[in-house]
Amino acid sequence: MWSVSMHVFHFIFVTMQKLIAYPLTVIHLVVFFLLLLIFHPIQVFCHHFLGYDAHRKSVYILNWFLMKSQLFLGTTYDIDFTEDLPVGPSYIFVSNHQSMFDIPPLIYYLRDYHPKFIAKKELAKGIPSISYNLRVGENCGIDRKDPKQALTALMAFAKNVHAKKRSAMIFAEGTRSRTGVPKPFQTRGLKTLFKYIPDAVVVPITINNSWKVDRYGKFPYGIFNNIHLTVHVPIPIAGRDQDEVILETQTLVHNAINENVQ
Which of 12, 139, 167, 215: disulfide with 222, CB 3.0–4.6 Å? Predict the structure, then answer.
């Protein structure tokens, strides 16, 4: 009897939460897209007239606002650094991937390290602010259906990161885990980065709970979540076996994923 009552209570709670999520999602989406529209011309101006640093600052300020827009959903962000990362060397940030809401905190919290993203090329057109930054912000657009193009783009990207002392940000699972359950790392992209940024240091990152924002699908969004990032101990790659580095990185990332995923 008690078990049945708890199931009924849980059903009512989840239903009410989802109903509340509809108007909150509408408010969030309006604010989210207004921010993209407002910051698009700001980015264009900064890129064309003020240069790289000004454009970079406009991007991380935008992403601070995008994080704050989640407050309409009752969602918060925080990050833990296992140890301090000195500014200067190139890093290869390697993370799991749960939703598009992973990206604003990575851009904002890692801003001192100039993270450059590897993303599917479809995102490089049609989305205010986001597509523009992917095109002009030294990021990498790859065609998942064209391995030759993907490899060529990734090589050019890695060489630029190495030459300019930027950092690379890669979602090593390849695609999002919509339930939070981790996926095995894809090794080809990582090994390309290792080859062309040989003095880089790998930094594993675990993202928790962002999949819960998409728990109902595209609409409405899940509400009242805390998206938490854990930045693990850096792993130098110089002189190391690449497969060992990838396995060590995957183990660190996956072991810190919450157990209460569905």
Answer: 215
Name the residue range of residue 197's domain.
2-255
Beta strand 91-95 with 76-81: parallel, antiparallel or unpaired?
unpaired
Q: Evaluate whether residue 80 is within a structural domain.
A: yes
Q: What is the dihedral of CA 110, 115, 120, 125, to 10 degrees?
A: 90
Residue 260 falls inside a structural domain: no
Q: Are 133 and 123 in contact (CB under 8 A)?
A: no
Amino acid at 45: F
pTM: 0.93
Please count the structural domains in the chain. Answer: 1
Q: Tell me, what CATH number does 168's domain have? A: 3.40.1130
- Domain contains 82: yes
pLDDT per residue of the chain (262 residues) written in tens, 0 to 9 = 555 555 555 556 667 888 999 999 999 999 999 999 999 999 999 999 999 999 999 999 999 999 999 999 999 999 999 999 999 889 999 999 999 999 999 999 999 999 999 998 999 999 999 999 999 999 999 988 888 899 999 999 999 999 999 999 999 998 888 888 899 999 999 999 999 999 999 999 999 999 999 988 889 999 999 999 999 999 999 889 999 999 999 999 999 998 655 4
List the alpha helices (DSSP H) in 70-210: 103-109, 130-136, 147-164, 187-196
| Residues near 121 by beta carbon (within 8 Å), at least 6 away in sequence | 141, 142, 143
